[in-house]
């Protein structure tokens, strides 16, 4: 589809993102926190969560749907709980500010959790938890969003695409991190197919008539389905309960009701759990995980989740990245006051 | 299949189970802890985890593969961690002994975890976590087992069927608990199809040649597959890391290597995480979960996980249960020294 691309360094993407967000109303601290996750996504070749998201962030800022000057407050809620009130701001700054307290609590208590409410999450989840695994922790992350996905057996949207991520440290290597929606496919995948006039595989969604369809435009008017039948539906429900109900954030239905059509992120919740495996009286944790990974990889056809990201990560700091020219021009225009 | 059944009260099932386990070498404390989870499974109509499991428990005891006199030790490992060394015994007593400390820690810290190593788990997971939700906690449970399941994209067994469970309290009602394998189907389902000469649906497993098959006997010689493709494979891997690597228990491959063919449970690990939602400064947790459940159930065709168990639970204390006569006779023979 993309006929013309613009070549940039990762640092240029960072600066452009900061400029566009600040021109849309974010202060420098919020803009840089978002730009860091955009930079990481571009570095790892996750284009759907890179600069591609910047116009949406800017739209939400311009519509005053999110607070670009939010100063998230860290609340020492309990010995094992850090809570952040994100003040209706974008999630990256809330996560950046809350993470050190989560790490400290997990290392002193053995397990701790970070709950973020009143934030708008529009990023990949792996950048939230990879720094926790870098600090030696095993981490899980649960995020809800606007209601797009039916419960197992249902025809009406009740859950967000409700992603979860899981991170594990590795000796001398970047952590293994998986990050996956609880829906059968990313919403962006269905939107791209609709734009390009393709059908999508069976099982991704139902049309507005409640019938299975491979027409992406019909699914966008109907509902997406959870992955893996009723088991994936149970995971989607678990993510909703942990991310929204436990933290006190908006549920996906509440986020949908409050959404004003700006095209950016809606209010949602975020629950991170971090465990210090060194506190279990077992000093062979890292070695045992590596042995298990080796057993998996001895089987031809098996890859570790996230391994393509790590390949890209080695190349892009040297090679730079290529961005669709129309997208690039759009973000430049936002930065320049367009 | 079952032509003749024996009708019993739930208490008779409990007593029969205790008798068979003690005749096989368990002491009373271990036998009663196992009989409690068998009793709960029969009460809730989970026949695959009821008295059906007793011969396997007894085989493992007679083969000295598990220690029927295990006295699990509770270790106060960290402010947020309870660890139980199950002394190579059956998991129910270890769980029963460790649970009060987990509840106390979760309520004081906001979040806590219980890790059990050196135990043999052969039961459903929901009886482990339902008491935590009864105490007002949100709980997750992860258990690994013998290697039966390939990683996503693979053809060799590296994971157990690796179930996970999730429990949430409800006001004035039993908790919502789901309990699901990370494999596309329970192993027992494939074994029953093989016994009865049926085929199984596509996607459950591969034959010894690494090719997809609907022949259950071929899958039992080959490998099972994770549910939901690579996303379910990621869940299976997460369960393995949490249940085995974090706790220091045997991985599913180690459990498989140590298995002596007795037909009972193998050594595995168990990690439970419990969160006190009342500690998040949000007193509407229960109400918000109920609102979400109502939204789900407003959609015709949606059921809450576990709701069939709760229907059975209302009936069986009065109606009693029906057990396959051959199975019943087998357990009676074990109890009577057969």
Supply the key terms.
338 residues, globular, 12 helices, homodimer, alpha+beta
Question: How do you describe this structure in short?
Answer:
The structure is a homodimer of 338-residue chains. Chain A has 338 residues and is α+β, with helices and mostly antiparallel strands.
**What is the count of distinct domains of chain A?**
1
How many distinct helices of chain A? Answer: 12
Helix content of chain A: 40-55%
Q: Estimate the mean pLDDT confidence of chain A.
A: 95
Largest sheet, strands/sense/barrel of chain A = 7 strands, mixed
The CATH topology of chain A is given as Ribosomal Protein S8, Chain: A, domain 1
Q: What is the name of the CATH superfamily of chain A?
A: Malate/L-lactate/L-sulpholactate dehydrogenase, NADPH binding domain
Helix and strand composition category of chain A: alpha+beta
- CATH class membership of chain A: Alpha Beta
Name the beta content range of chain A.
Answer: 15-25%
What does this structure look like?
By secondary structure, the first copy, chain A, is an alpha+beta fold. Chain A has one domain: Malate/L-lactate/L-sulpholactate dehydrogenase, NADPH binding domain (Ribosomal Protein S8, Chain: A, domain 1, 2-Layer Sandwich), CATH 3.30.1370. Chain A is 43% helix and 22% strand. The first copy, chain A, is built from twelve helices and 13 strands. In chain A, helix 1 (10-23) runs parallel beside helix 3 (54-62). The radius of gyration of chain A is 20 Å and the shape is globular. The mean pLDDT of chain A is 95. The interface between A and B is large, with 72 and 72 residues.
